[in-house]
Amino acid sequence: MGTILGISIPVILLAAALLTLAGTIWHFYKKAKHTMKDLFGTDNLNELIKSREEEQASTPKSVSGLTSIYVPLIQKDFPELNWVELKGIAEGHLKEHLREKKLTDIRIHKTEVFSYIKNSGTCVIVFQSGVQYLTGTKKVQTRYNTHMMYIQDAIEYGKESGFSVTCPHCGGALTSLGAKFCEYCGSEVIPINIHVWDLHKIEEV
């Protein structure tokens, strides 16, 4: 291999290739910064990341609302139930749960009926809430599901005590959740109301 000014040609070619590569990288770097500034108003990556974090912390989480689907089913089974009032009670339980975790500035943006589950001996209404709170000085947006349970059959559910659906006059089982009259003796029964719904669990989703 020959030399130029005492430097071997392979070294010169390598140096030229590296300079070309560096120039290409610099060109794309400048173009990327220009594009980023056009799109986001800044070419500072740290500022962009911080801005996105602040935006995310201030944007409420969407909730999966199936209220229009489940409320008619709930009202069919529990015609005396004020589900809006029950939703308020569920939100109260959720706020208390978050306060116990030492969180502050708690706000519930929106709550919807997420699910209605009928199992052996129980019925559960699941409310999903979009929640904002402060942990220290950090603002957080998240979602929680609050499960409110009605024990239809205490024995079947495995509890020794609780509300069971039986006629207070003859003890006959009420086959309909919303029954107002006993099908055995015809006596009027107390309508199922909001007070038989208890908090089952709260989970972040």
Describe this entry's structure for a reader.
- By secondary structure, the chain is an alpha+beta fold.
- Helices cover 39% and strands 27% of the residues.
- The chain is built from 5 helices and 6 strands, in the order ββααααβββαβ.
- It has a 4-stranded antiparallel sheet.
- Strand 4 and strand 5 form a beta hairpin.
- About 2% of the residues have low confidence.
Short account of what is shown:
The chain is of the alpha+beta class and 205 residues long. It has 5 helices and 6 strands. Helix content is 39%, strand content 27%.
The overall average pLDDT, rounded, is: 80
Beta percentage is 25-35%
Number of E-type strands: 6
Strand order of the largest sheet: 3-4-5-6
Element-level helix/strand string: EEHHHHEEEHE
Principal-axes shape call: rod-shaped
Give the C-alpha Rg.
Answer: 32 Å
Count of helix runs: 5
